[in-house]
């Protein structure tokens, strides 16, 4: 089965002969941005049923219809790795969500910390960034972007058996880091100002916490997120 | 010796009792952005003499003067790793330079490829980004951002003995990648459209070329740069 170049994430189930209603945004993108009409082949995925080759059968101002021709690639789930991070400036937060999706995070959890600047996030906008990144990177899975929660509450409710890997700035020069724990796992990236002494104590007291070093320079939060996800994927994830 | 929080890169030699003329831009930043005056302590570095604690002795519209009080940290050179990359959209190119500096690249070489969009770069602006990133990340070294050159010319003049590590998209699912070569080395990141068949053939024919896999998803060029630098630093660089 050939793989179409235009990739769209949809919510509906995908299957042989299945008709799919595309959103107004997708119709606009196809007709006005890409200048495509009926007969155009697209790839559809929904995080569950793999990638399907589909053909546009109708297109208008309010939406479009497509019909599934056949499965082009099987569903590929990322390893069970979460990214827990403190949102920073808008562009860098968008960037973290985009990169976490490309790097195969299974779930993205924004948290408020004592030194976090952001009191709230636009969860829908961040989720849209994750969808766009998945469409772009050829994956068949879009990680959920969870609602913003205080770090303390996330730590209180931490699921038993899930390792929490903390990129600890104080380890900058601390010799060879230990091997990273396997899935289920989560990477925690603090805000630009680091964690408060109280938060550091709570982290140390949480069971399943591992710390990791990210080298001798102080990385920005967005760099740290990409670096930590990369190291985990290379050691314990799907690379390969 | 205490380390000051305000870090400034200067060109001049640093040494005990040395007077340093700061630029108009630094004077503006100190006086108008940070609202600091004479007596303020700053950290100065120049990529050669380590980090020096200095005190502002004069400040005006046209510049400022500082005097070196003592060395606060030794010079720390990054490993001999270059980043060779094809510039992409402006924000993502800026981002690559910032991240490469934070991640300890020793030199940054923008190259034109067949599928590169950019015909030119603002070398001075990219160099300024590298300086800002070094000031921010606590390093004492600013990598040089070289002038834009065609990839073919860079490959023709490739220095003997320097490994060229190519993040090859076609290796996405190709089993465990081999260990990365040690310094002197360079990482090569292609443009969004990948390398042309001719370029791929030239790369394969260049001596000292290694390829590396960056997992099963197709990474954007900026993500690939950060991921590749991270993997090399963790395997062969200064982490730790």
Automatic annotation (TrEMBL), chains A, B:
Residues 27-66 form the Ribosomal RNA small subunit methyltransferase E PUA-like domain. Its main location: cytoplasm. The keyword Methyltransferase applies. It is an enzyme of class 2 (transferase). One of its GO terms (cellular component) is cytoplasm. It holds the Pfam family PUA_4. InterPro entries: Alpha/beta_knot_MTases, PUA-like_sf, RsmE, RsmE_MTase_dom, RsmE_PUA-like, tRNA_m1G_MTases_N. The keyword Transferase applies. One of its GO terms (biological process) is rRNA base methylation. Gene3D superfamilies: 3.40.1280.10, Hypothetical PUA domain-like, domain 1. It catalyses: uridine(1498) in 16S rRNA + S-adenosyl-L-methionine = N(3)-methyluridine(1498) in 16S rRNA + S-adenosyl-L-homocysteine + H(+). Its EC number is 2.1.1.193. GO terms for molecular function: rRNA (uridine-N3-)-methyltransferase activity. Residues 78-233 form the Ribosomal RNA small subunit methyltransferase E methyltransferase domain. Keywords: Cytoplasm, Methyltransferase, rRNA processing, S-adenosyl-L-methionine, Transferase. It is found in: Cytoplasm. Belongs to the RNA methyltransferase RsmE family. Specifically methylates the N3 position of the uracil ring of uridine 1498 (m3U1498) in 16S rRNA. Acts on the fully assembled 30S ribosomal subunit. NCBIfam families: PRK11713.3-5, RsmE family RNA methyltransferase. This is Ribosomal RNA small subunit methyltransferase E. The lineage of its organism: Bacteria, Pseudomonadati, Pseudomonadota, Alphaproteobacteria, Rhodobacterales.
């Amino acid at each position: 089965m050939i793989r179409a170049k235009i990739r769209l994430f949809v919510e509906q189930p995908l299957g042989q002969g299945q008709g799919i209603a595309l959103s107004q945004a997708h119709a606009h993108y196809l007709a006005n941005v890409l200048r495509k009409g009926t007969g155009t082949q697209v790839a559809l995925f929904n995080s569950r049923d793999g990638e399907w080759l589909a053909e546009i059968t109708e297109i208008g101002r309010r939406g479009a219809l497509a019909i599934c021709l056949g499965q082009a690639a099987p569903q590929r789930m990322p390893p069970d790795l979460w990214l827990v991070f403190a949102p920073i400036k808008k562009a860098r937060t968008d960037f973290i969500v985009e990169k976490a999706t490309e790097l195969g995070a299974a779930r993205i959890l924004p948290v408020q910390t004592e030194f976090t600047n952001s009191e709230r996030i636009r969860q829908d906008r961040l989720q849209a960034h994750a969808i766009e990144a998945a469409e772009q990177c050829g994956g068949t899975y879009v990680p959920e972007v969870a609602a913003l929660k205080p770090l303390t509450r996330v730590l209180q409710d931490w699921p038993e058996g899930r390792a929490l890997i903390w990129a600890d700035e104080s380890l900058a020069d601390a010799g060879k880091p230990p091997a990273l724990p396997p899935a289920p796992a989560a990477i925690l990236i603090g805000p630009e100002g680091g964690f408060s002494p109280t938060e550091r104590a709570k982290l140390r007291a949480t069971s399943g916490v591992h710390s990791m070093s990210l080298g001798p320079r102080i990385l920005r939060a967005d760099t740290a997120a990409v670096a930590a996800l990369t190291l985990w994927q290379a050691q314990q994830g799907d690379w390969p």
